[in-house]
UniProtKB/TrEMBL annotation:
Domain of life: Bacteria
This protein's UniProt keywords: Membrane, Transmembrane, Transmembrane helix
Protein name: LPXTG-motif cell wall anchor domain-containing protein
Keyword Membrane annotated: yes
Keyword Transmembrane set for record: yes
Regions crossing the membrane: 6-23
Amino acid sequence: MDINWSLIAIVAVLVIILVVLTIRKNQREKKKLENLLNNDFKKAEKDRVDADDSANEK
Protein backbone atom coordinates (compact mmCIF):
# COMPACT_ATOMS: atom_id res chain seq x y z
CA MET A 1 0.00 0.00 0.00
CA ASP A 2 1.53 3.27 -1.17
CA ILE A 3 1.16 6.45 0.91
CA ASN A 4 -0.05 9.41 -1.11
CA TRP A 5 2.19 12.15 0.35
CA SER A 6 0.85 14.89 -1.89
CA LEU A 7 -2.69 14.35 -0.60
CA ILE A 8 -1.46 14.38 3.00
CA ALA A 9 0.49 17.60 2.34
CA ILE A 10 -2.57 19.30 0.80
CA VAL A 11 -4.75 18.31 3.76
CA ALA A 12 -2.08 19.48 6.23
CA VAL A 13 -1.78 22.86 4.49
CA LEU A 14 -5.57 23.29 4.50
CA VAL A 15 -5.74 22.46 8.20
CA ILE A 16 -2.98 24.98 8.98
CA ILE A 17 -4.77 27.67 6.96
CA LEU A 18 -8.03 26.92 8.77
CA VAL A 19 -6.34 27.19 12.17
CA VAL A 20 -4.64 30.49 11.28
CA LEU A 21 -7.86 32.02 9.95
CA THR A 22 -9.77 30.90 13.05
CA ILE A 23 -7.19 32.44 15.37
CA ARG A 24 -7.19 35.74 13.44
CA LYS A 25 -11.00 35.94 13.51
CA ASN A 26 -11.02 35.16 17.22
CA GLN A 27 -8.53 37.98 17.88
CA ARG A 28 -10.69 40.46 15.94
CA GLU A 29 -13.81 39.39 17.83
CA LYS A 30 -11.94 39.63 21.13
CA LYS A 31 -10.85 43.18 20.31
CA LYS A 32 -14.42 44.17 19.36
CA LEU A 33 -15.79 42.67 22.58
CA GLU A 34 -13.13 44.40 24.66
CA ASN A 35 -13.94 47.77 23.08
CA LEU A 36 -17.66 47.18 23.60
CA LEU A 37 -17.21 46.29 27.26
CA ASN A 38 -14.85 49.20 27.89
CA ASN A 39 -17.18 51.75 26.28
CA ASP A 40 -20.54 50.32 27.33
CA PHE A 41 -21.21 52.20 30.52
CA LYS A 42 -23.92 54.70 31.17
CA LYS A 43 -22.75 58.11 32.20
CA ALA A 44 -24.59 59.56 35.15
CA GLU A 45 -26.70 62.51 34.18
CA LYS A 46 -27.30 65.19 36.77
CA ASP A 47 -30.75 66.67 36.63
CA ARG A 48 -29.90 69.69 38.70
CA VAL A 49 -26.58 71.25 39.58
CA ASP A 50 -25.99 72.23 43.18
CA ALA A 51 -23.76 75.18 43.93
CA ASP A 52 -22.33 73.30 46.90
CA ASP A 53 -21.31 70.38 44.68
CA SER A 54 -19.06 72.46 42.46
CA ALA A 55 -15.37 71.92 43.00
CA ASN A 56 -14.72 74.71 45.54
CA GLU A 57 -15.16 77.49 43.01
CA LYS A 58 -15.93 80.07 45.68
